[in-house]
Amino acid sequence: MSLTLEQVHRVAHLARIEISDAEAASTLGHLNEIFALIEEMQAVDTLGIEPMAHAQDLAQRLRADRVTESDQLAQRAAFQAIAPETEAGLYLVPKVIE
Amino acid sequence: MIEHSLQAIALSLKSKEISSVELTQLYLDRIARYNPRLNAYLAVDPAISLGQAQAADERLARGEGGPLTGIPIAHKDIFCARGWLTTCGSKMLSSFVSPYDAAVISRFHAAGAVVLGKTNMDEFAMGSSNETSFFGPVHNPWDTTRVPGGSSGGSAAAVAARLAPAATGTDTGGSIRQPAALCNLTGMKPTYGVISRYGMIAFASSLDQAGPLGRSAADCALLLNSMAGFDERDSTSLNRPAEDYGRELNAAAGAKPLAGLKIGLPEEFFGEGCAPEVMHLVEAAVAEYRQLGAETVAVSLPSMGLSVAAYYVIAPAEASSNLARFDGVRYGYRAPDYHDLTDMYCKSRAQGFGAEVKRRILIGTYVLSHGYYDAYYLQAQRIRRLIANDFAAAFRQCDVIIGPTSPSTAFKLGEKASDPVQMYLSDIYTIAVNLAGLPGISLSCGFAGGLPAGLQLIGDYFTEARLLNVAHRYQLATAWHLQRPAAFD
Question: What residue spans define the domains of chain A?
Answer without folding.
Answer: 5-43
